[in-house]
Amino acid sequence: MITPSQLNPDEARKLIRVKDWDNPTAGMANGFIQANLAILPKELAFEFLLFCQRNPKSCPIIDVTEPGSPVPMLSAPNADIRTDLPKYRVYKNGELAEELSDITSYWNDDMVAFLLGCSFTFEDALLKNNIPIRHIEENRNVPMYKTNIGCVGAGRFEGPMVVSMRPMTEKEAIRAVQVTSRFPSVHGAPVHIGNPEAIGINNIQRPDFGDPVTIKDGEVPVFWACGVTPQAVAMHVKPEIMITHAPGHMFITDLKNEEFSVL
Amino acid sequence: MITPSQLNPDEARKLIRVKDWDNPTAGMANGFIQANLAILPKELAFEFLLFCQRNPKSCPIIDVTEPGSPVPMLSAPNADIRTDLPKYRVYKNGELAEELSDITSYWNDDMVAFLLGCSFTFEDALLKNNIPIRHIEENRNVPMYKTNIGCVGAGRFEGPMVVSMRPMTEKEAIRAVQVTSRFPSVHGAPVHIGNPEAIGINNIQRPDFGDPVTIKDGEVPVFWACGVTPQAVAMHVKPEIMITHAPGHMFITDLKNEEFSVL
Hints:
The first copy, chain A, is of the alpha+beta class and 263 residues long.
């Protein structure tokens, strides 16, 4: 009987590669960084990398493959980006074309894969600090919202920041700023605390993506830049082809969460 | 009578632009980030940006211009990268071809300018913490050394890390780690403390660049990744054309040092 949380990254990716696992990856290979995936043609790679560099809170770069190589040398040198995620989405000209579990047939020498930090790492750090994570408690997807905060554009890439929200007490919010500031590579400190309207969110109970969660009396909403941002922005450019992970079906790296803390 | 340290960045750059200042920029526009410059053809821009992203201690990115634009929009939107540094070096096929004070005649639509963090910012933070900076005390250039620490390659870009060295007591070294860890965008924490031979430096009194400085009894050498690294690595690729600042003649941004601290 496999305990997914106890697998090491190599074991977890192998399970996924041989198609013995097609579920979301939350909770697998505990303590290791999981990443969002965005694959783009080389022609767009400089602009997208520059976009990520200019918007590090939304687009924290974990690894970028050499053009044509499916191997993320720095974060998982034994992995293959084409087979080691449980579910992918293929977009053509900005429209979802297919959802599948292996993208080998789509891969070509012109492709560059970007691995971007996701919130799993800082949620782990929050939980270890006894800060509750409501969407986990309520077994829902994290609520996400389009904001009126503009990303810094780079070439053809531009658009609004998408944020995720976690409600907590004001005291916990201060601790959450401290805890997540240590992890700039996985979104870092919150971008906003409190009044949702100040960042263009009119109804906190109607997220643009994910599910609403309960905000209790005495709690404030705390907002973090969200990894959905770069995908939304890239989609807007309508690249001929773009491949991403399916929501929740992330890439598991060999990097430990704590290695990515700055202090 | 002009006091260079009291100028704001706009005033300092204007002085430079009209050729009323052709000296090194150390001490100008106090409190504002100064940056190393590297201009490369667009064809190399993705690989160089990826190299910087993979080697953030050596190559901390402050700003990157859009291809063909001489304006660093994020760090100094009123500046012109072609005229606002007191001295430039033009390299052709990896060889120094010319040193001049205005590169407008070289500029074309194919060029991308990279502004990379320099050590002035963290030296300012060290001084504010009463940590001595020997090369400033002795009025010399900081000693710099090639090491046996390999940078992480990206495409054609690869090579050893160059480090700068500042001697201090062991107690000061601990404080220096804390102080500079706050500034990952300007080289961040040291890469090595103590025995120079461990990183391939055989004679601490014979630096590869800059000048030797006195190491007093009871002091240890503390090594930081140095902004010379990306230039050395880029030169190795022998690009048809590459333009950099002349040593010490940096670009003055509108960004305050403290804005670039993570905590």
